[in-house]
Write a structure and sequence with these properties.
Number of strands: 9
Strand order of the largest sheet: 2-3-4-5-6-7
Largest sheet: 6 strands, antiparallel
Radius of gyration: 18 Å
Structural class: alpha+beta
Distance between the termini: 27 Å
Helix content: 10-25%
Number of helices: 3
């Protein structure tokens, strides 16, 4: 915890020393921490109950990649496994919130490691992603950063970068 606090202080210090526009690479552990706060996601759907949890975030080229655990209870059957989803990242200037955009299911595996093809499991996970995760912010800029204008947020070369102006 002290390391996170120290890193945030260093970033703020660097940003506050100079006026103008600066681009900062956001450490992956900070992204994981922010996204983990939004999980687990539990929803009762028509004839099913679904839970996705334990997101592990990495970056690939221009996309954020999450490996998730899922549990789906359909009438009379239970399915568990892992899913790999990817998305772009966007920032809403008005609300000062970060969203996951263009969420895609890359792969789904059953608990036994076998690959899941399109069907019920895919459809349920896709509905959960599209209707619950993509519509809610994954991060809201804290009040202490209110003097900073976010100019850009992007994933590039496997890292997340935020461009700010103060």
């Amino acid at each position: 915890m002290k390391r996170i606090f120290l890193l945030v202080l260093i970033i703020i210090s660097v940003l506050s020393c100079e006026k103008g526009e600066k681009t900062v690479k956001v450490p992956q552990f900070m992204v994981n921490k922010a996204i983990a706060k939004k999980f687990p996601v539990e929803k009762n759907l028509v004839l099913a109950r679904a839970v996705i949890e334990n997101p592990k975030v990495t970056f690939s080229d221009d996309r954020l990649v999450m490996n998730l655990d899922y549990k789906i209870s359909l009438v009379g059957e239970k399915k568990e496994g892992k899913a790999k989803v990817s998305s772009k990242v966007s920032f809403d200037q008005d609300t000062r919130e970060v969203y996951l955009d263009d969420l895609l299911i890359d792969e789904i595996w059953n608990k036994d490691g076998s690959k899941v093809e399109k069907g019920k499991t895919y459809d349920i996970l896709n509905e959960l992603l599209a209707n619950y995760i993509a519509k809610k912010p994954v991060y809201e800029m804290e009040e202490k950063y209110k003097d900073y204008e976010i100019k850009n947020i992007k994933i590039e070369n496997g890292s997340l970068y935020v461009t700010v102006k103060n």
